[in-house]
Design a protein that fits this description.
This protein has about 250 residues and is of the alpha/beta class. The chain has helices at about 30-45, 55-65, 80-90, 105-115, 125-150, 175-190, 195-205, 215-225; strands at about 25-30, 50, 70-75, 95-100, 120, 150-155, 155-160, 165-170, 170-175, 235, 240-245. It has a 5-stranded parallel sheet with strand order 2-1-3-4-5, with helices on both faces. It has a 4-stranded antiparallel sheet with strand order 6-7-8-9, covered by helices on one side. Strands 10-11 form a two-stranded antiparallel ribbon.
């Protein structure tokens, strides 16, 4: 049986969807108690969890839910996990998959990765380990998508990460290097409230000894350039942080 201990987690910007909604996780395991424990642990992370108990049910759920990551048992009553994964790839080519397996032989581990699995955990496992591995898979998948997508668009605001050009409604906006990084962080997390501490950590990569006023200062700079004479996109959520939303 898995260890039910897990640590309290917070929703980090790179562990949610681009629109700020929770990650969607599909758990596929025919053992109801294991599936329920995983469901509880992942919901505790703030993620949206869907459960399937057979391979065919999993394939239906993939089409319906469009998960961001999948936990897939190697042995299912109707279809082997590797066969499920092969069919799943036709519906969700890039979704990361974590295999759960009772097989601990090296050749079995290699087989799981060879058929397209991204990682595996052997039973019995701890919930904490599964959560940690899923978080790592999601981050890697997000990094790949970010690398492939050089243009960010939120409403009429467009940021080209390669050319470092920014426009709003077709009008060029000139930004300093720090203003650009701050706006990029906001645009990668649209509609998500970002705290000053998160912004300090991601944009400046260290905190200013608690001097969060540097965030307020640069937010004000951005507003003057992005929102000046237009409907505002950058909003202050008092006591919580800042959020970028399409002007509506």
């Amino acid at each position: 049986m898995p260890d039910t201990s897990t640590q309290t987690a917070t929703q980090e910007p790179d562990l949610v969807r681009a629109d700020g909604s929770p990650l969607r996780v599909l758990v596929v395991d025919d053992e109801a108690n294991i599936a329920e424990l995983l469901k509880m642990a992942l919901r505790y992370e703030g993620w949206m969890v869907t459960v399937a108990h057979t391979g065919n049910e999993a394939l239906t759920k993939v089409r319906e839910v469009q998960p961001d990551v999948v936990v897939l048992d190697w042995m299912l009553p109707d279809l082997p996990g590797p066969d499920v994964l092969k069919r799943m790839r036709a519906e969700a080519e890039d979704v990361p998959v974590l295999f759960l397996t009772a097989r601990d032989a090296v050749e079995d581990r290699i087989a799981g990765l060879t058929v397209g699995g991204d990682d595996y955990v052997t039973k019995p496992f701890s919930l904490e380990e599964v959560v940690a591995r899923l978080r790592a898979l999601v981050r890697r998948a997000g990094a790949r998508r970010s690398d492939a997508r050089s243009v960010l668009t939120v409403g009429d605001l467009v940021l080209d990460e390669d050319s470092r050009e920014v426009t709003r409604d077709g009008t060029e906006i000139r930004l300093t290097a720090t203003e650009f990084e701050l706006l990029r962080f906001l645009m990668r997390n649209p509609r998500r409230v970002l705290s000053k501490a998160q912004i300090l950590d991601r944009v400046w990569n260290y905190d200013f000894g608690g001097q969060v006023n540097v965030v307020e200062l640069y937010i004000s700079y951005l507003r003057k350039k992005v929102d000046a004479g237009r409907r505002p996109m950058i909003h202050t959520m008092r006591g919580a942080g800042y959020v970028l939303r399409p002007a509506g």
